[in-house]
What we know:
Elements (H helix, E strand, L loop, with lengths): L3 E4 L5 E4 L2 E2 L7 H12 L5 E2 H8 L5 H18 L8 E3 L3 E4 L5 E3 H11 L10 H13 L11 H27 L3 H14 L4 H13 L3 H19 L5 H11 L21 H37 L1
Parallel strand pairs: 1-7
Antiparallel strand pairs: 1-2, 2-3, 4-6, 5-6
Amino acid sequence: MKTLSVRLFGKLDVYYGNDCVTDCFTSFKALELFCYLLLHRNRPHTRESIAALLWNDVSTSLARKYLRKVIWQLQQILGGADVRIIIVESEWIYLNREAQLWLDVITVEQAFVNTYELPGHALDEQAARSLQAAVQLYRGALLEGWYQDWCLYEREKWQNMYFMMLDKLIVYCTKHDEYDSGISYGMQLLHFDQTNELAHRRLMRLHHLRGDRTTAMHQYQSCVAALQRELDMKPMKETVDLYEQICTDRLGDIVDRSIGTAPGVQIGPAKLQDLLQWLKQVQAHLSRIQTEVQQKIQLVEQTLEE
């Protein structure tokens, strides 16, 4: 029995056995429906909810008409499979759980769930290997290039999962002296989020532990520049303290709370005050962004009305 393999991260690829069938989806709506069902494969969906999701700008009757056509197209495309991939009933549509199917998101999700409650320093070798295999499957953002509302929500959810797995691997590599691998994971994280201050601190520590204090100091400068450029913010006191201790080769004096803290150690009022100040800066920046976006929306709406 041939396996239908679908990669949803980065460039969308659909294979049936060894044959690429991505181009068989000549209807984008059929492809959109297929991917939505794959991502929400654990439950059935009413025709009404699917129609409203895919055609929210037309009447209910017209949306259901479009859906019938797309379902027919999807059945024609997947009709060559050994087992029906999509089950269609009078009022329901869902993925057939008996179908021979491989999804990159399933592998990533399983690795994430299995290690969710484990901090990075508590990972064993098997858990770490599962996370490493999972992050390798993340070739890019989920359904890259798609901008439907439901897709944007899913993309952010999966990206956050990816960030959490990378962060755990960085901590794992730091504990087990796998500095090069840890640096690689840190750079992957910063590729998607240059303002991730925690990732910058982890890289500063890894470079210094690797014996490269100069690169550790350069990492701090990169952090400062990214925060200033993207958020108009200064680094947290914790980041500055780490930099100063690296400059004076006092890294051993630093308690890395993210990797593991001695029992009874608590965050004091001074650190909480720093955190509060940082959060208020983020809030103010997000408020400015929201105002700018709203102004641009109004400008576009006015242009369309002219």
